[in-house]
Every structure is written in structure tokens, then in C-alpha cells.
Amino acid sequence: MASPFDAIDAAGQAAIAQRLGEAVAFIGMKGGDYSSGPDPERPQQEATAITAISPRMGKVADGIQGRSSTGSSRTHNHSEILLTEADFAALEWEPKRDDVVLIDPGTQKERPFTISAVLPGEFGDVQIILSEGKATP
User: Which of 8, 56, 117, 120 is found 20 to 30 A from 83 (Cα to Cα)?
Assistant: First the structure.
């Protein structure tokens, strides 16, 4: 049974996506790990998503109380995109692990990512965790 708050939540998601959303494209890949190329049965599709690209660096011992830093650093790559319930439902096919996401597709700022996980949200929205490093197919 639908809650009276569902309509309010959908309106809020739409307003946020309209204000903060960016163009993304999904490219379906064949197979899984070590896939061999684009899946012709899942052609490229475009959508609007809220993006959070966050390459960060920090000392290995940062956040560990009572430890001195070794001077070594590590990179934290936890980039993600968020699709509203309506935007996710409008996709022709659902993205999955190892598919490719292009942020700002077709522009000089285009950046490819590989999907690490697709996580359904509590309110119907979908969070997609990204990893850098996949070349555009």
C-alpha cells in the first residue's frame, strides 16, 4: 500500500535531480569479470544522475589514534552516482556490475567508470558505486 509520503518523496527526488543531475550514459558489457566488450543486446542509454566523484588521498595512518604516520599515502576511490526511482525505472535495461558509466558523455570532460555495485535505496532510488580505470569500449 502506498504511503501518502511516497508522492512527497518522489517530488523531492525529482527536484534534487533537476537541480543537481548530470548527464550519464550506461554501456552494457558482455559477461562479467574480464568482459570482452560491449553487449550488443544492451545498447548505450543515457540518463540523468546525481554524481559524486571523490578521488582523495590521505596518509596510511590517518585516523588511527596513537600512530605516527609512515609518510605513505593511499588513494580512496569511492565515487558514485544516484538515480531517482523515476529515472531508474525509465531505463531500457538495468545497469549491473562491470558495466561502464560515462559521466558527461560526448564532451571533453567525459570520464569512464566501471560499476562496482548497484544498491537499491530505501525510497526507490538507486545508488551505483563506481571504480575508475575502465577504458571506453
Answer: 56
The CA–CA distances, whole Å, from 31 to 40, 41, 43, 92 equal: 12, 12, 15, 19
| Predicted local distance difference test score (pLDDT) of residue 8 | 73
Task: Report the candidate in 114, 32, 108, 57 with the shortest Cα–Cα distance to residue 81.
Answer: 114
Residue 123 has a CB neighbour count (10 Å cut-off) of: 13
DSSP-derived secondary structure letter, 134: P
Average pLDDT, 10 consecutive residues per value, the chain (137 residues): 71 73 91 73 93 64 51 64 91 94 91 92 88 63
Residue 12: C-alpha distances to residues 24, 42, 103, 118 (Å)? 21, 30, 23, 22
Among the listed residues 128, 28, 123, 16, the one whose alpha carbon sits nearest the alpha carbon of residue 81:
128
First and final CA of the chain: distance in angstroms?
43
